[in-house]
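Agenda item 2: glutamic acid complex prediction
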Amino acid sequence: MEITRFAPSPTGHLHIGGARTALFSYLFAKANKGKFLLRFEDTDQERSKDEYVDSILNSLDWMQIKLDAEPVYQSKRIVKHKELAIELYKKGFAYACDCSEETLTKMREEQIAKKQKPKYNGLNRNKNIKFSEGMVLRFKFPLEGESKFKDLILGDIAINNKEFDDFIILRSDGSPTYNFSAAVDDKDMKITTVIRGDDHITNTLKQINVLKALGATIPKYAHLPMVLAESGKRLSKRDGAEDILDYKKKGYLSDALINYLVRLGWSYGEEEIFSLEKLQKIFDLSYVNSSPSKYSQDLLNWYNNKYLNFLSAEELVLKVKKNSEIDFSEINNGNLAISLLAKGANSLNQIAEDSIYFFEDPQVNFDALKIDKNKKILFSEFSHQLKQIDFEKNSIEKFIKEFLQANDLKFPQLGKPLRVILTGKENAPSISELLFILGKETSLKRIEYTLDD
Ligand code: GLU
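Presented output:
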């Protein structure tokens, strides 16, 4: 059975890149009828915060990503990791090192002077130093050959072992290092496929060697190419939101975000719309693109607009109320109004912001229309005739058409000012629908207000 995990360090909120990694990991597990686990790599006591643990949990919950077991907290496993590091030392896979800061600095400076890559040169590798508290333990990285694996997305990856050094697995303060702890935890959590960002490729080669020394089965690995900003640069705060929950606050639907995220580097023929339910069946890592993908706010907005319009008016009313406390059920034709606004909206919040004129009369002065004073008569006539008609959608449309013809007007000559009169805005939905939803009384009241002024 496939077991995957998401292993965030709770040193910040869940951002776009992390959310995509979590989603791919989750979907891969589900599509293979496997399990998805969560591990907080919270050993950095200064930078790890409970606040971030909570916000990551809330983000995953909002994204409908369900855990198949309680989260693992790496900080609770430090004692076990230390014991295992000492065991590797006893078995000869690691050695104790008492190099001083000065020795290490000198080593580094000499290497830099010779234009070599700075790394530990193995000074104490064969000295059989007896380990005691306060010393570090270094992993005996293989000296010959290469370390390699077949990445499920990127294919064969191999690096000459000479590129690596005997990295530290246990620090002098007794704390284990990331590459050691991650390998131990992947082993103990019985992870079968590790899915993470491609910034971890070198770590993977280190961890594979640790896992071999631990006698563990080596999991499969899939490294996801980065998500870049539209500019091609690293994604920053200004591009994607730093915190996935900000999308929730701004009125994005989690289904839309999921659909958007899954299409960041993954494709399935020509299809663009995927429900989470479907993704849980069809997701396959072999369709992940091996080059970086780019974050696009426009595309995310496009998805959110689509998903807003998949909802019924009743669902929209509830969601808008929850997000912004604007309650469409308080107004006449609220369901029609919200559906009309959803057509052009990118978020629940935009629906709420655009909705003001359904709740309050805009009170527009004639001057604001930027048209000739003598056109007032035309609008009086329009208003007068509007009073007479039956306020059904078809009759409103028919009346507008006839009025334009009879007065030799093009639609914008009437439509543009009328839209401002009715809504206070230049960009608003179709006039006939607006008139119908506002109703005869309100429409006439607004037109008369403007003409009276
Ligand atoms: N804690 C690591 C990070 O947040 C993830 C490591 C992993 O997935 O193995 O980058």
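Discussion summary: The first helix runs from residue 16 to 31.
Owner for follow-up: CH.
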